[in-house]
Specification:
The protein has 184 residues and is α/β, with parallel strands linked by helices. Helices cover 28% and strands 23% of the residues. The relative contact order is 0.23.
């Protein structure tokens, strides 16, 4: 399954509430309970993807820094666990605790959240200022094996502007990673 959206469609996305299993706690929770009035980062990640593993340490540091500044972070795994059992809720819980994820780690069993946002790969970031999408795309230019240090600069620049309460023009920087594993 390939989801295609135009830039116009992506730009029009608003924060939307879904109820999903939050794997660290093992309880279904509403995404809206984690939204921030200032800024919200929704990221599509998973356990098995080498691109996610590549940024995990910096992602944790960066999210800790901005969570302390009232920016919220929510991570979502939408992969089909029949194809990738490593991405199961049980394994998500283990990874989240092992790495010390400071953000909730939701499992999108029906893949409805990924479809709504138009997520295509992991890792992929959607940043909202208030309710409006202002950034869609990559963490930074670093990839496994390209020798560019992991910095998170692309999302850091957007988050700094949100903290300055500056209006932000929609920015897109396509991410590279593992395709979301859609159910057949």
């Amino acid at each position: 399954m390939v989801i295609t959206y135009s830039d116009y469609d992506i730009k029009q996305k608003k924060l939307k509430n879904f109820e999903l299993l939050e794997t660290k706690s093992g309880v279904k929770k509403s995404l809206k309970d984690f939204f921030s009035d200032l800024g919200t980062v929704i990221m599509f990640i998973c356990n098995h993807c080498p691109f996610v593993k590549h940024i995990n340490n910096k992602l944790i540091l960066l999210s800790n820094e901005y969570i302390n500044k009232n920016i919220s972070f929510l991570s979502i795994n939408s992969n089909d666990i029949q194809q990738y059992p490593e991405d199961s809720p049980e394994n998500m819980k283990k990874v989240a605790h092992q790495l010390g994820y400071p953000f909730p780690y939701f499992f999108d069993r029906t893949q409805q959240v990924a479809k709504y946002y138009g997520a295509k790969c992991t890792p992929e970031f959607f940043i909202f200022q208030n309710q409006n999408l202002c950034y869609y795309g990559q963490f930074d230019d670093s990839r496994p094996g390209n020798n560019i240090p992991v910095s998170g600069i692309d999302i850091q620049n957007i988050l700094d502007n949100i903290l300055k309460e500056q209006p932000i023009q929609f920015t897109k920087k396509l991410s590279q990673g593992c395709n979301i594993k859609w159910k057949k």
